[in-house]
């Protein structure tokens, strides 16, 4: 019997988190010597894995060594496949995302290669990435290792009792508020002239007639998202998230009425309590603030010529302006005004003053001097925009960054000079934290266009990520291939008798290339026949001189049983019966499959199985509605804490399924996953289901397992065309799920007109 080799059984796969320093990753790989390495990192550090040239800096003492990427340093060679082994984390501070991505990767490896040895090294990356990988590894029985300065220490999951692990997961992965952005504002963009206020709730539905300008709402978010992802590109044609579905046509096309002399104004409202501030003291400044509004102006020079860039920046707190900046030569923004009397600014200065031990009793004269110092600082403070918003500010003509260490060296020196040095540093921290929060929130925007990708018949052979990978929904099929939990939920929805009632089920098959199959199968068949012949000879030899007598007796027994041995065709089933008696065919074939799978690199394919006939079919053999709804379901079931914009989710679905889709959105937004949805739709049935769940919540009749739906969870917007520019109107709902005011222009009244 052929057995698996030790190499097959002991294949080692290492999972690592990647951060700023490549050194611990290199050490972990060199010590373990794995057969394969899977890297988890964010976009900022992916060059360390796939970058060309010398993207890595390894520090040894005082020496900095510029080195090639990590797979090259560690000589992984063809053992590293970037399309398979590089996992990008969109938000490396989102524990839920890190945990789910690591868990899905581990389970996929375990399913496709159950006898391999998996290790997880959590030394690199952010603390959140490390914790996410560690929790996922422990939950799935994976050995953990951490790279210490002395040795590589391995800790197995058995050291953490499972009840403790469950409690740990619930504590760190508990549902949290998904979105710190509560609204955004936009003007001079496409259909919008005047500033429009657009609230964002967990369920935001956008309605309007054709060509009313409702797509401008989502497109303005795609503009901001692209600027963040592309390091500040604003003269945008095709956006990164929008793929082939959205072509903004460049600034001259998306600015209102194509007037290049206008500035597109774009702003967001954020909850200050959700800011990730580097200093808790800064958080104290915002305790009394309910809403921060942060905005930019995008445009060219006043003449309409020149480069498209951020031309202005402002911060408001509860409607009062805190600061304004505007563009200067060479792409700089300069501080134009700072409200010294505003509570945020005054408290920021007061905090600096109170840190000085000698400043217990500050005279009015000293305070006047401090105010004068701050006012003199205003025109000296500048900033550059790296993506969409300014992050670090600079002071003076030389553009020096504020230096806190230098200011602290003053000790009990002149208070005004201390404020001059410390205030820009603290202001830079505040602006940077605000910008980082907004860019992080907008950076996780995921868009699904109105025309979802219709994948090729054989998905396994066409999984390259094209420009339309997300906008067209291609990513959804990849998630279904690799995430059994999401696949199970989608199958349940498709087969539910109250929903899709589909007879089809998504199944993953593991395929071997025909060349590999031919190479592996022939020697095994030859050996099988050899073993069979040996058994036959062995048994025949045992008969000795009586063999002829035994053969005649066997012939007689077979003929007595009605078996005709004269015909070869008739004899074959009997020979097969004889072979099966001497050989356990089922066990042998099962063994062959395991050996060939372990020896090669199976290709995973996603197919639909007709449950009635157990026949595999392609999605191209069934109705288009299934292929169009699957990306919607995957977005709802497969994402957590996401910001998801979808155009026409109801496309190719009949009215009842549109209503059922409403429940899917409710569960994804208001359940444990805490996603935020912006849905541009024409579906009345989708809205009616949400209104029904609000009424049932109010009356206490909500179906079991359905999250409660309240007015603060839902925002219905109506985009109305106007001669001066489209207008966004909010259509509030009361606790019973009823519209507080009538639809403008009798929208949705066509049904009543047809009946009466």
UniProtKB/TrEMBL annotation:
Protein name per UniProt: Uncharacterized protein
InterPro entries: ATPase_AAA_core, Bact_Antivir_Def_Nuclease, DUF3696, P-loop_NTPase
Superkingdom classification of source: Bacteria
SUPFAM superfamilies: P-loop containing nucleoside triphosphate hydrolases
Domain ATPase AAA-type core: from-to ranges: 573-687
GO molecular function, one term: ATP binding
Alphabetical list of Pfam families matching this protein: AAA_21 (PF13304), DUF3696 (PF12476)
Domain DUF3696: 710-755
